[in-house]
């Protein structure tokens, strides 16, 4: 381990045998902070420190050299965390120079051991430390006398500002910007006036809600410091709508824990300051674009994206690295990124125009890779519009396989699986397709697609009503070791796939009445995906739906009603459906029926089969309220056929429950009990606690109706006692008092018919207590499922 860290001193920085001598650009400035770093390197070689402390200091060297200038307090605190003895020695060294005379600083540079003046120096001349020391000595020796004097005055100000009273705020580094501005080694003249004029003209490019007006402006950053800052931020977090073909275009990948990155406002402040002094720094514009996407700022994100490609083309970097093709390549991917940006914001017309432009340029250049990315975005755009894109997706998969683009091929197969699930394909066919893609993922180490595949499998099992399988796949995703470990040993766990899996787990726990576990999951989601992040809408909608269902189960309709507006803001379809549920519970049947009819028409157009079935079942319940049981039968049969056609087991079981209840109300309890037996097993195996309770309650009512309190049918009545007890246990777990009141009412009737006086009195007392507590008239037991 020591050899790794000591390579900063001894190992040459070589690639293919070529020494990179330009690690530190000649445009970097000699600053008091850099002198502090030199003092640290001097004390590390002059003093004796333990091996663990030396290792910690070695780890610190590169960030200190390449990072932005720190105040003296920040610098000393950082060093003290590694080695307090060295921090004290550095403080004394700076004190000697700052409180002494100019000759003390001259003496420090003259006695500084270098790879050239000291034969036994620890710093190898081509190592990171050696190059830094060579650069600093070269820069210092090129300074004129007036520049040396200004450097000394800046050092004094840098040192004494640390011990000044904190009444002036941050007066250290910003005040040095003007004094140090003429120390650029590329100029031998005093250019303070020119730089001041330029600073007055170079204002931040954009003003948005991210910009904080009360924050003081920082000093300028060199090109190397700006690149280091960007590398740190991009590594810490971000979705990457990349502009290069070697990284997939459709990857929404949060590389690290975004909480460790700067907040959007703070990052925007740093970017504005960076662009003020480096307006042609293309990568800063791209980071500005990504940061704007975090807060859904469409204007600033589009503006920054266009600036990025303008700077990239004007700088000539693409042309130098790729020949004459570089210019056209940037234009192609600029149009493609613009199309993806408009897709994300739902601007389908603008996205289609940008995509057609990218396709035209790529065809002119015969760029098959770019064309394949365009085809992928084309079928994605068609899906967003609600059109059938199966043919386009199949063509995309074939072409991606032909050009050896496994990422795009796998994305296409996953898209086909998703379309197949909505079109009623059988589960084994979909799982076979996902299994083939998983082999491809592991072969090419596509970790993000492995996570997406597991999340997609979880969603498919959940849609089919197999909650046990969905729970297993969700747990598998959460416990998988990522192939892309991130900084500080934290595994990648804040992608969209993880958010989807956690939301499924939260809903599955809520269905079982485990609300304490749900609270922990939601809290983790809030910490992992803050409200300003792009995937926060997933857990927001999940949390609202869970709260809504809980209030509805507990009969607290006044608390459920305000949640409808919030749900509608995130998902209009879900909001309308839940609004109809609340209206139905409040006995406003006419309004509920009108909303359900509008929702059914909309869902049939968008081919949302699950919602269509739910709407049909809710409409049938409205028919029950007007005693239209025979009218509800065609709707229920249609819903059952649709659910079985699409292999939706949970909805099929729900439709069977409704059919059995309708048959019970039509006076055929034997047939209702026979039909109900088809749904009992899947409901008990995979259903929610509420569904289990409703199933048991309906089974007990059918058994009581079959028995008819006749001597030869007493067995059914006795069986109904156990069934009602089981239903009461399920409803108690959810604190569903209205349902419990119904159960106790039926128990009292049943015990009275069986001549069980004590049990009858107990059930009657429980019914009376609940009825007094609820203080609301109970709906007829015969009119609700």
From TrEMBL:
Signal peptide: none annotated. It is found in: Cytoplasm, Cytoskeleton, Spindle; Nucleus. Component of the anaphase promoting complex/cyclosome (APC/C), a cell cycle-regulated E3 ubiquitin ligase that controls progression through mitosis and the G1 phase of the cell cycle. The APC/C complex acts by mediating ubiquitination and subsequent degradation of target proteins: it mainly mediates the formation of 'Lys-11'-linked polyubiquitin chains and, to a lower extent, the formation of 'Lys-48'- and 'Lys-63'-linked polyubiquitin chains. The APC/C complex catalyzes assembly of branched 'Lys-11'-/'Lys-48'-linked branched ubiquitin chains on target proteins. SUPFAM superfamilies: TPR-like. Pathway: Protein modification; protein ubiquitination. It comes from the Eukaryota. Keywords: Cell cycle, Cell division, Cytoplasm, Cytoskeleton, Mitosis, Nucleus, Phosphoprotein, Repeat, TPR repeat, Ubl conjugation pathway. Residues 184-221 are annotated as: Disordered. Gene3D superfamilies: Tetratricopeptide repeat domain (1.25.40.10). GO terms for biological process: anaphase-promoting complex-dependent catabolic process; cell division; positive regulation of mitotic metaphase/anaphase transition; protein K11-linked ubiquitination. This is Anaphase-promoting complex subunit 5. The gene is ANAPC5.
């Amino acid at each position: 381990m020591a050899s790794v860290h000591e390579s900063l001193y001894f190992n040459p920085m070589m690639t293919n045998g070529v020494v990179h001598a330009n690690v530190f650009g000649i445009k970097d400035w000699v600053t008091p902070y850099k002198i502090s770093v030199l003092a640290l390197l001097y004390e590390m070689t002059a003093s004796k420190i333990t091996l663990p402390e030396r290792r910690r200091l070695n780890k610190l060297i590169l960030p200190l050299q390449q990072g932005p200038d720190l105040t003296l307090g920040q610098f000393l605190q950082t060093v003290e965390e590694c080695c307090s003895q060295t921090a004290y020695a550095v403080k004394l060294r700076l004190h000697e120079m700052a409180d002494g005379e100019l000759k003390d600083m001259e003496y420090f540079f003259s006695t500084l051991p270098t790879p050239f003046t000291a034969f036994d120096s620890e710093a190898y001349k081509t190592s990171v430390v050696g190059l830094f020391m060579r650069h600093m000595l070269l820069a210092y020796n090129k300074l004129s006398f007036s520049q040396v004097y200004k450097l000394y005055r800046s050092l004094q100000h840098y040192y004494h500002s640390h011990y000044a009273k904190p009444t002036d705020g941050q007066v250290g580094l910003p005040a040095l910007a003007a004094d140090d501005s003429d120390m650029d080694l590329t100029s031998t003249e005093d250019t303070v006036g020119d730089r001041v004029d330029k600073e007055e003209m170079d204002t931040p490019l954009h003003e948005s809600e991210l910009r904080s007006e009360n924050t003081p402006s920082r000093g300028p950053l060199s090109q190397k410091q700006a690149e280091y800052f960007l590398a740190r931020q991009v590594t810490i977090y971000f979705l990457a709508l990349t502009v290069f073909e070697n990284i997939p275009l459709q990857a929404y990948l949060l590389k690290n824990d975004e909480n460790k990155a700067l907040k959007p406002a703070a990052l925007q402040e740093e970017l504005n300051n960076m662009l003020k002094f480096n307006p042609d720094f293309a990568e800063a514009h791209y980071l500005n674009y990504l940061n704007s996407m975090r807060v859904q700022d469409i204007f600033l994100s589009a503006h920054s994206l266009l600036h990025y490609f303008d700077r990239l083309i004007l700088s000539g970097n693409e042309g130098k690295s790729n020949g004459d093709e570089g210019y056209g390549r940037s234009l192609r991917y600029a149009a493609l990124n613009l199309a993806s940006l408009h897709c994300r914001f739902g601007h389908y017309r603008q996205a289609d125009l940008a995509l057609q432009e990218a396709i035209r340029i790529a065809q002119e250049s015969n760029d098959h890779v770019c064309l394949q990315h365009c085809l992928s975005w084309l079928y994605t755009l068609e899906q967003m519009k609600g059109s059938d894109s199966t043919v386009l997706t199949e063509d995309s998969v074939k072409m991606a396989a032909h050009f050896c683009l496994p990422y795009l091929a796998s994305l296409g197969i996953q898209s086909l699986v998703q379309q197949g699930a909505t079109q009623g394909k059988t589960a084994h066919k979909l799982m076979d397709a996902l299994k083939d893609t998983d082999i491809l993922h592991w072969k090419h180490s596509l970790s993000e697609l492995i996570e997406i595949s597991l999340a997609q499998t979880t969603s498919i099992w959940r849609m089919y009503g197999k909650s046990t399988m969905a729970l297993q796949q969700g747990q598998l995703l959460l416990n998988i070791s990522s192939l892309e470990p991130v900084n500080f040993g934290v595994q990648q766990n804040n992608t969209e796939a993880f958010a989807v899996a956690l939301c499924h787990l939260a809903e599955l726990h809520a269905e079982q009445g485990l609300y304490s576990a749900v609270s922990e999951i939601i809290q983790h989601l809030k910490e992992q995906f803050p409200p300003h992040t792009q995937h926060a809408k997933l857990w927001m909608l999940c949390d609202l739906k869970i709260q809504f269902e809980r209030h509805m189960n507990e009969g607290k309709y006044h608390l459920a009603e305000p949640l409808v507006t919030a749900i509608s803001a995130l998902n209009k379809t879900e909001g309308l459906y839940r609004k109809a549920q609340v209206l139905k519970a409040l006995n406003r049947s006419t309004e509920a029926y009108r909303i359900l009819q509008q929702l059914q028409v909309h869902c049939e157009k968008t081919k949302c089969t699950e919602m269509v079935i739910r709407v049909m079942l809710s409409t049938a319940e409205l028919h029950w309220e007007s005693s239209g049981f025979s009218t509800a039968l065609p709707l229920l049969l249609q819903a059952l056929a649709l659910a079985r056609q699409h292999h939706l087991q949970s909805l099929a079981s729900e439709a069977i429950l409704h059919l059995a209840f309708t048959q019970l109300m039509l006076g055929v309890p034997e047939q209702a009990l026979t039909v109900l037996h088809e749904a009992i097993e899947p409901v008990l195996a995979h259903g929610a606690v509420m569904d289990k309770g409703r199933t048991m309650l309906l089974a007990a009512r059918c058994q009581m109706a079959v028995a008819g309190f006749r001597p030869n049918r007493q067995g059914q009545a006795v069986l109904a006692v156990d069934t009602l007890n089981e239903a009461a246990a399920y409803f108690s777990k959810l604190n569903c008092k209205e349902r419990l009141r119904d159960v106790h009412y039926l128990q009292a009737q049943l015990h009275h018919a069986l001549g069980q006086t004590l049990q009858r009195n107990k059930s009657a007392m429980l019914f009376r207590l609940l009825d007094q507590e609820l203080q609301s008239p109970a709906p007829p037991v015969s009119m609700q499922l």
